[in-house]
Amino acid sequence: MFEFTIKKEDLLTPLLTVAGAVDKKQSLAILSNFLFKIADNLLFITATDLEIEISAQVACESRNTTGAITVPAKKFIDIIRSLDDQASPNLVFDNGILTIKQGRSSFKLTTLPAEGYPLSEDECNDVELSIPRLVLLQLLQATHFAMSQQDVRVFLNGLFLDFEPNIISAVATDGHRMAISRYQCSHISDKKLLLPKKGVQELLRLLNCIDDENVSLAAGKSHFKLVSSQFVFLSKLIEARFPPYAKAIPRNQDKQIIIDCSVLKRALSRIVILAHEKSKAVMLHLQPGLLTLIANNNEQEEAVESLVAETQGDELKIGLNATYLLDVLSHFGDGQIRLSLSQTDSSILIESLENDNYQYIIMPMKI
Q1: Between 174 and which of 36, 62, 106, 148 could a Cys-Cys bridge form, CB atoms 3.0 to 4.6 Å apart?
Q2: Distance in angstroms between the alpha carbons of the first and the last residue of the chain
Q3: What is the pLDDT of residues 319-344, one digit of tens each?
Q4: Domain locations in the chain?
Q5: Where is the DNA polymerase III beta sliding clamp C-terminal domain (predicted)?
Q6: pLDDT score, position 64
Q7: pLDDT tens digits along 277-310
Q8: What is the DSSP code (8-state) at residue 121?
Q9: Residue 129: which of 172, 83, 191, 81 has the closest Cα?
């Protein structure tokens, strides 16, 4: 038996932080539960779906009692949410039942033994470093959209982190496009790891919820770990070899388009309205000093817009998926970008003239 009291306002935030790791598939009953541990007037909250694990801690009044249980995550969150904002519920665990008391309200939840909760095992780390939170967030935000959804090639269903002595590269590809983001740093051990899609999505959510200046990263043979002031995040790694992405970056492109990013983005957003509903195909027509965007569909409808641009090279027509290009443009701020091209059937390299840490490659389409 153990008992503790905690303020709703202190409890709800860590609950919602950890809830992202609760198993939604309900493959095992205990994975739908939070693991609660009480020790030294601290409540430790953990959730896992066997792929990712998130834990947080919060101060409570436990009267020097200790113990551990697992409780139904969704029901527990719903109960705590339903209480008045100023509530400080009292929680008592006895004979397999967790009783939550607040004023004249009382809730009894069935629990499962903590001994059966599948926590990840500690392992030796090959790389450890501290990194600015915003830098890590930008690395992920600038690349995650290019991950594949459900490809049989498992290495496409994640985000590749390439640690080199002076640089960290984040890379994602679905086979039709590739996104590369880099961060210059020093004193890093060589390490290559592939984060699963869900782990990346949870990292983005968590990093957006905190205001830490720096976070700590660690990676071993099979796990990736991030530690902040508010939570600890662990993710299994995808056991697959990521392709040599540097070889996919186009070289010696003899045609270039330099144009204001916001101008191109607004024009493309208009043109795509009449593009084919599924393919979102748009033709880019490069002429001296001019870039013309052309879209049409099965209803014989057409949209055309010509933009003044700084161009180099011979005339060229090339088709591509407008959604892919809009995804890229949304990650550039104001300023000019460069599109490097060579032939109708060759990939397009897109870079910012303001920041050389980002590269995007899009495969062409036949129109």
Answers
A1: 148
A2: 70
A3: 999 999 999 999 988 899 999 999 99
A4: 2-113, 128-247, 255-362
A5: 247-365
A6: 72
A7: 999 999 999 999 999 999 999 999 999 999 999 9
A8: P
A9: 191
Tell me, which fold does domain 2-113 have in CATH? DNA Polymerase III; Chain A, domain 2 (3.10.150)
User: Once rounded to an integer, what is the mean pLDDT over residues 155-177?
Assistant: 94
Contacts of 223 (CB under 8 A, 6+ apart): 120, 123, 234, 235, 236, 237
Which two structure tokens, joined as six digits, stand for 83? 């209480």
Sorted by sequence, the CB contacts under 8 Å of residue 346 that are 6+ apart come out as 250, 253, 364
Q: Is 142 helix (H, G, I), strand (E, B) or coil?
A: coil
Q: Which residue has the tokens 């038996």?
A: 1
User: What angle is formed at CA 46 by the lines to CA 80 and CA 64, rounded to 5 degrees?
Assistant: 75
Phi and psi angles of residue 208, each rounded to the nearest 5 degrees, phi first = -80, -15
- The set of residues, in sequence order, having a beta carbon less than 8 Å from that of 163 and lying 6+ positions away, is 127, 188, 189, 190, 191, 192, 193, 219
The architecture in CATH of the region 128-247 reads Roll (3.10)
In angstroms, the CA 155 to CA 196 distance is 9
